[in-house]
Structure formats: C-alpha cells, structure tokens
Amino acid sequence: MNRPRPFFLDLLAIRLPIGGLVSIMHRASGALLSLAIPAFLYTLMLSLNSPEDFARVQAFLDGWLGGLIGLGLLWALLHHLFAGLRHLGFDIGWGEEKLRARLTAKLAMAAAILLVGLVALSSLMNSGGAT
Amino acid sequence: MRRVGGSHRGLDMWLLQRASAIYMALFLPIFLVCALSAGPLDYAVWHGLFESLAMKVASFLFIAAMLAHAWIGLREIFIDYLHCANCTLLRLALYFAFAVLYLACLVWTVDILWSVR
Q: Are B67 and B102 contacting, i.e. CB atoms less than 8 angstroms apart?
C-alpha cells in the first residue's frame, strides 16, 4: 500500500520558484517572531515602566547590536505581514494565476526589504545628525 | 464511541489563524498612525498613548491575537516536521510548553498594559 515516496531534500540543489521562496520565508519569519514574543513583551514593559527604562530601550536600539536585532525582527514582521496578506488573497481566490502570484510574491519580498532599508537609512541619518 | 480519525479541530484553527491575522493587519497601521501623529516619540508621548482604556483594550486584543496566531503557527510547523514514530509525545510536550509560555505572556500583558496610569 505505502510505496516509498521519492525523497529529495538537498537544500543547496533545490531551486525554489519565487512563490515557494516567499512561502518558506513566511514560515521562517513566523517561527522567529513567535520565539521573540517574550523579548518583545519585556521591551514593551521596560519602555512603559519609567523614563529611565525608556531611555535604556532607546539606547539599546540605537546601538549596533540592538539596531541589528530590531531591524531583523522588523524585516521578519513585514515579510510575514505582506506574505500573509498574499496568502489571505489566495484564500478568497485572488491572485492565484501564475503571473499574478509571481508578481505579488516579488512585491511582498521587495516591499519588506525596501521598508527595512528606509527605516535603517533614516535612523542612520538621524544618529549621524545628532553626533 | 468516538470516531477515529482526528479531532476535527483543524478548521477552527484555520479560521482563528485568519481572524487573528486580519485583526493584527488592521491594528498595526492604525496604531502606527496614532503613534506617529502623537508627536516626537519620547517617554511622555509613548506612555500617554497607552493611558486610554480604548488603547489598552485594543493592544491587549492585538497581543492576544498574536499569541494565538503564534501558537497555531508553531503547531503547524511541529506537525509538518516532527512525524517520526515517537514524535507524537514530543509534539504534545511542545504544544503544552508553548501553551503555558503564551498563557503566561497573556497575563503578563495585562499587567504591563494596566500598570500604565
């Protein structure tokens, strides 16, 4: 009954179509965001706790490590959001044709990267102007 | 006698995943506009943003939606990748661990938001 299925999982040799890439990144970003929830709540707590703690959060996010983590999580959030909206579209039958699905996949990926780039650039310019 | 073949809760989870996604997708841009229009973001402005009951309730629902969404999403990942013979127990243990963690986070969220006076 259960014939063995063909099994091929050489991650370096598999070339995913753009839709598959956006989809697996949707899953990876979702997993990352899920694991980051306690850290997110801790940050929210500090930021609302007192002016001193708010300043500590701000200083952490202005540093290179905090900035990198913040931008990484922002990218995960935006990619997950845009790819998720695309999947919601599929649920109601919108954008399932091949060409449109490829277009929205590229759009979702590009929009997330572009927005993170803009935020990174503006925060770099702000910190550059302050010093 | 219960019919064998799964708990048939998949559809509920599927629906809750979409409902929580839609709430978050609506809340985030509205929150962003509120935060950006409140003025240059210092502690007073940030703190003031969460003083109203409406904002407390709306952000609580956002985080509750996020926790439910994360739990269902992780469950899907565990189901997809953990299916060796002995993995059922491991999956159940992971569901349990994350349920406890996220319920604790939910209570923590109430404390964080309602400490803002």
A: yes
